[in-house]
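Colleagues,

For the teaching module next term, I've prepared a clean inverse folding example: a structure given as tokens, and then the sequence designed for it. I'd like students to try predicting residues themselves before seeing the answer, so please don't circulate the second half yet.
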């Protein structure tokens, strides 16, 4: 049975009512679904990752070699034949279309038909008494005049008048006499026909008036009046208003599709497009598959996207192109009934989530067709870029909220613009900072710098420790869910978030070092479970250099000002692939192009979590972490190692006594507090163990490790963590050499 994450409905204010909790089987979107891997650390489940072997006592199993299937296939084919058969199976058309077979497709078509025809009927029903009837009565006299005038012109042969006048102008007497005789004959015959028709009509009207019931008489009068009103209505003011004036509510035909390709320049005199399958409904839109003329490719269709939309008489945001792997000239179009990107994706399902497993996919948004898009931050870093007010921060924050709901994920959050958007993460973040301006003796830029140094040292340490773990714990030298949740090993999944990263990278004093550390983490850290997510509204080389952008495996671009900026965010060559975030509209808030999270790129309409929703989620996340004992760092009120890092080596050296080769960490902390109480005073107020941990974290970025140091006190040996003078001296020497070289 597949394990899934429980997401109670968002209507549950706390998300903890077991009666309303349910398991939502989120369908996986192919462009955000990573390739499945066998569970690392532990045996694979039978029937899931390996074949279940028969019992050795089973007589029918005797003679089976190890690895030999219990029930071998009756027919074995060479690989080439198998591949050919598989390709033929995929190419075979289904007996019934998807909208007939699939319940969700049937439901979508049914909803569309009911919505469409009920709207049309209701639209006209409301207008019959108040609009259509007055229009009929107003235009019916004009229609009677037009009708009688047309009959008069027919009876008196008005269509031949121009010829008779021409013969007079040419002084052609013979032709004129011929036309006059023809006209007299026509008028005589047509007059008789008109007279008979008038008598018959009058007799029928009198009979109807005398013998017919009143309802039939009224119906006949209404029909006659309606006909006269339809005749008398002006050409620019139709009698019946259009319930839907756009293309999307009329049937898409092959003629329209061919016309679109002709005006887009995708056809030639000798070749046009072909339809390998019929046009049909597909959800809230139409699915069209075409074969372009030989020599034309999917890339040509992408470049002609705007002209294709114009030829189909729709907005470009309603036309979506998909590549067909079976042929370079085959293109699949999905034409939405309305702009799907302007439709809000709704509130995040995280509102109803009791907790999230960050090792698995989590809901991030929906695609253009409303299918859920599941995201992952495992083994990658993510760059988010957009112009202001397009949902960049909210999109990134949704990922951080999912991480917060996994109590075993360590969060670092830094916001360069110091907005209220990230303030509530103080409940759960291990390290957090806002803005670049020092306040009340706290410098957020130095705090970020120290956190980056701390994390870099942790990443380097993880690589060493993972390679040294026993095989039964770490069979492949890689981080596993079991290892990440082991508090003794202290290697949790970590998400490092930097919003408006350009504010830190352009800092005059620390910008270069912050850039260097971020580049290192984005390039190296994801492999050991440390993911980096940065967002910016200025992705140019000055504010966010390419050496950092290029380290992000995944990119997410919301609306930007120009295709060049879109290419900078999504990566060089994205525009030629048809990925252009500048085509998104201002109304497409929270909508962006996702590339690199899997093999395919796609559109994501991210879920919304406003300030109140984020606070609810983070309150629940803080309670989870307190229950699991994973609330650490700034959220737990633990003293950070920040600003002391630049002088910590010299300060420790200053408090070591002559001849002291090994000193306990708590002793050093007490001496540091006496040396510089304004800096180390907070450490001295901690208990013995937190003192040692604070000093360890501060010295770790410089390669100074702490070891168990034993001393005899009152005849007993007491072991506590401390440092060695030789390690400290080596670190100072190495630091001085780097300064001299730099």
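(Answer key — instructors only)
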């Amino acid at each position: 049975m597949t394990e899934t994450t429980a997401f109670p409905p968002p209507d549950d204010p706390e998300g903890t009512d077991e009666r309303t909790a349910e398991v939502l089987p989120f369908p996986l979107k192919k462009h955000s679904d990573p390739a499945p891997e066998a569970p690392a650390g532990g045996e694979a489940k039978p029937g899931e990752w390996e074949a279940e072997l028969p019992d050795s006592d089973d007589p029918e199993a005797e003679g089976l070699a190890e690895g030999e299937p219990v029930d071998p296939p009756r027919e074995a084919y060479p690989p080439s034949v198998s591949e050919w058969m598989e390709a033929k199976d995929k190419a075979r058309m289904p007996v019934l279309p998807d909208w007939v077979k699939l319940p969700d497709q049937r439901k979508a078509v049914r909803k569309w038909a009911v919505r469409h025809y009920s709207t049309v009927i209701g639209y006209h029903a409301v207008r019959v008494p108040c609009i259509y009837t007055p229009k009929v009565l107003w235009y019916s006299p004009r229609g009677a005049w037009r009708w009688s005038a047309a009959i008069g012109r027919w009876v008196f042969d008005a269509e031949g008048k121009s010829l008779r006048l021409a013969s007079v102008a040419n002084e052609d007497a013979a032709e004129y006499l011929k036309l006059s005789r023809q006209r007299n004959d026509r008028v005589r015959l047509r007059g008789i026909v008109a007279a008979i028709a008038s008598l018959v009509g009058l007799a029928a009207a009198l009979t109807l008036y005398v013998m017919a019931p009143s309802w039939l008489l009224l119906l006949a009068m209404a029909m006659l009046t309606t006909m006269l009103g339809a005749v008398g209505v002006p050409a620019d003011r139709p009698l019946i208003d259009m319930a839907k004036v756009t293309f999307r509510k009329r049937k898409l035909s092959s003629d329209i599709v061919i016309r679109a390709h002709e005006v887009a320049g995708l056809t030639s005199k000798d070749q046009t497009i072909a339809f390998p399958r019929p046009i049909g409904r597909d959800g809230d839109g139409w699915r069209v598959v075409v074969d372009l003329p030989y020599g034309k490719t999917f890339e040509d269709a992408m470049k002609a996207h705007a002209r294709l939309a114009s030829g189909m008489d729709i907005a470009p945001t309603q036309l979506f192109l998909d590549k067909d792997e079976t042929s370079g000239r085959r293109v699949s179009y999905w034409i939405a009934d309305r702009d799907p990107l302007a439709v809000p994706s709704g509130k995040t399902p995280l509102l109803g989530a009791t907790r999230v497993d960050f090792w698995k996919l989590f809901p991030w948004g929906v695609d253009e067709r409303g299918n859920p898009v599941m995201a992952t931050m495992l083994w990658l870093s993510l760059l988010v870029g957009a112009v202001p007010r397009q949902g960049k921060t909210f999109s990134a924050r949704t990922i951080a909220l999912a991480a917060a709901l996994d109590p075993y994920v360590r969060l670092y959050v830094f916001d360069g613009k110091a907005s209220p958007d990230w303030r509530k993460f103080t409940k759960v973040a291990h390290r957090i900072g806002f803005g670049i301006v020092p306040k009340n003796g706290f410098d957020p830029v130095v705090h970020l710098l120290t956190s980056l140094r701390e994390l870099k040292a942790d990443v380097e340490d993880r690589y060493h420790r993972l390679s040294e773990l026993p095989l039964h714990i770490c069979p492949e030298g890689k981080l596993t869910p079991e290892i990440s949740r082991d508090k003794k090993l202290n290697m949790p999944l970590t998400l490092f978030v930097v919003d408006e990263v350009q504010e830190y990278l352009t800092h005059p004093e620390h910008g270069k070092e912050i850039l260097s550390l971020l580049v290192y983490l984005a390039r190296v850290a994801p492999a050991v479970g440390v993911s980096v997510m940065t967002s910016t509204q200025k992705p140019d080389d000055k504010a966010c250099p390419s050496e950092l952008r290029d380290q992000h495996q995944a990119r997410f671009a919301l609306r930007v000002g120009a295709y060049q900026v879109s290419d900078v965010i999504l990566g060089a060559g994205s525009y030629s692939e048809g990925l252009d975030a500048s085509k998104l509209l201002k109304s497409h808030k929270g909508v962006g192009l996702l590339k690199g999270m899997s093999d395919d790129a796609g559109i994501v309409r991210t879920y919304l979590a406003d300030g109140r929703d984020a606070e609810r989620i983070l309150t629940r996340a803080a309670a989870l972490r307190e229950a699991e004992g994973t609330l650490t760092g700034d959220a737990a009120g633990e003293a950070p190692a920040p600003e002391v890092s630049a002088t910590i080596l010299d300060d420790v050296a200053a408090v070591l006594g002559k001849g002291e080769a090994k000193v306990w960490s708590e002793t050093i902390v007490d001496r540091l507090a006496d040396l510089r109480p304004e800096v180390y005073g907070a450490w001295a107020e901690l208990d013995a163990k937190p003192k040692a941990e604070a000093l360890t974290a501060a010295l770790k970025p410089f390669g100074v490790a702490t070891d168990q140091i034993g001393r005899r006190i009152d005849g007993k040996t007491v072991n506590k963590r401390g440092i060695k003078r030789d390690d400290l001296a080596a670190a100072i020497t190495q630091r001085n050499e780097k300064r001299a070289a730099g």
